Amino acid sequence: MVASGGLGAVMGSKNLKAIVVEGGGPVPIHPDRVSDFKAAVLRWREEACATGLGKTVHEKGTLGLFKPYHDKGWVPVKNLTTNQLPDEALNQLDWSYMRNELYEKVPKACHACTFQHCHTVRVKEGHYKGIVGEEPEYEILAGFGPNWGIHDPGAITMLNNLNDNLGMDAKEVSFLISMLMEGVEKGEINKENLDGIDLTWGNIEAVEQILRKISKRDGIGDVLAGGVMRTARDLGGEMDDMAVYVKQGNAPHIHDPRTRWGTLFTQVISNTASQEGMDMTSRANPELGFTEPTSEPDAYLAEVQAKTGPKRQFEECLVFCYFQACSLKHTVYTMNVLTGGAFTVQECLTVGERVINLLRIYNVREGLVMDDDCYSHRLGERPKDGPGKGKSMNPTFDRVRAAYYQSMGWDEKGVPIPETLERLGLGFIIDDAIIQK
Ligand code: SF4
Q: Count of alpha carbons within 13 Å of 349, Cβ hemisphere only?
């Protein structure tokens, strides 16, 4: 929960492992709207089960995203040196095989969730038979699997649980270790740089050793604990060209996002080091006025991010699971019957816009500049294969970023202008923006 954005580091520096909040009271429903609320919840569930993401996660877990994402060229393989896998690997990493044959499983869902997509599993066959732990999510399956040249789902399950127990961010270790493996393959580094560990593609035992070293800052682990970008710069040579990160050293979500424009762009311009808006590379959102997917990185992508960011940030304020999102109209209706409120959809989008601008001004005050809305060399490279072969965001990125700033009511450096802040009721922070200029 606190890995990205630096909060995990702050907590770690204070030896704070977790914050647990417990409550025993009921969540009150507005007394005049109880039956409306119950009907709204049922409709919410129907809508959520019918979205592409909801249907997949409900029926197959996020494991079910693996094959369709692979077919779109979005699965990271060997540090983005490719995004294609042989059929044999696809069969091993297939959700149906894993859920129905590899695992014995019991649901372990979040409180009161009817989707129940999370499971505790026991591996029934193979070298890792007997391992008990959490079923990997899609990003772990990809990031601890093909991104490291590993196709054994039992091994991925073991490594996922090891990493969880060590308390480390999966995104950062995925792209850190894949970068080191590529560096070894290309002769940029060798065993001597890694305390004698033979970190070649697919070497599961070597990954285990490296994870433990990072968590204890033991030997080379002290360097690697700096994450992808800092490690690349410490090791020098061509390593920075292999590093996968956005902004000033934040590993992105575990995809090959080079042609998944929305996923890449929303993390590049993000103020939270995660996905601030929505990816619509292969889908539309008529509710927000977008009838076409963002099939190219052009001004349309900027407009989509400027509209989907407020939607997503408003939804984040309601603290519900993103896998179970329904239409914005019904989300607002449900909130109103629960609370007895009378918010309009536009007012709710303004709440989301206010969140983004508040975060932006905070970051600007702390030193964020336009050049921090950026991505690493590797993320701008053109895929050598897959459906996105030969495409890159590089040629249009500056224009898209400028168009996004303009759509948000920000100046050419990405700083919210006073009129925007006044419109959002944030006039009290204008001074913070002016100080930065
Ligand atoms: S709340 Fe979301 S993350 Fe949790 S089990 Fe349900 S669908 Fe999965």
A: 15
CB of 434 shorter than 6 A to ligand 1: no
- Choose which residue among 57, 118, 120, 140 to substitute to test ligand 1 binding: the one with the highest number of ligand atoms within 8 A of its C-beta: 118
Please tell me if the CB atom of residue 62 comes closer than 6 angstroms to any atom of ligand 1.
no
Mean pLDDT over 360-365 rounds to 93
**pLDDT score, position 6:** 74
Closest ligand 1 atom number to CA of residue 113: 6
CATH number for the domain formed by residue range(s) 61-242: 1.10.569.10
The DSSP element (H or E) to which 132 belongs, if any, is: strand 132-134
pLDDT by residue (tens digit) across 275-291? 999 999 988 999 999 99
Whole-number pLDDT of residue 1: 54
CB-based contact 375:264 (threshold 8 Å)? yes
Pocket test for ligand 1, best of 134, 321, 324, 326 (most atoms within 8 A of CB): 321
**Closest residue by CA, ligand 1 atom 5:** 109
Name the residue ranges covered by the structural domains of the chain: 61-242, 257-436
Contacts with 431 (C-beta within 8 Å, 6 or more apart), sequence order: none
Most confident of 23-27, 165-169, 215-219, 365-369: 215-219
Q: What number does the ligand 1 atom closest to the CA of 58 have?
A: 7
Instruction: Indicate the DSSP class of residue 25.
Output: S
> 84: CA distance to ligand 1 center in Å?
29
SS3 350: helix
Question: Which residue has the least CA distance to atom 4 on ligand 1?
Answer: 110
DSSP conformation class of 375: B
- pLDDT at 403 > cutoff 90: yes
Select from 156, 173, 161, 234 the least CA-distant residue to 3. Answer: 173
Task: Please determine, looking at this structure, whether the domain spanning 257-436 carries the CATH number 3.40.50.2300.
Answer: no
User: Hey, what are 214's tokens?
Assistant: 């990072």
The finding on whether 118 has its CB within 6 A of some atom of ligand 1 is yes
Provide the 10 A C-beta neighbour count for residue 411.
Answer: 15
Distance 109 CA to ligand 1 centre (A): 6
CA 401 to centroid of ligand 1, rounded, Å: 33
Alpha carbons 300 and 304: distance in angstroms, whole number: 6
Query: In this predicted complex, what is the ipTM?
Result: 0.98
For ligand 1, atom 8, the nearest C-alpha belongs to 117
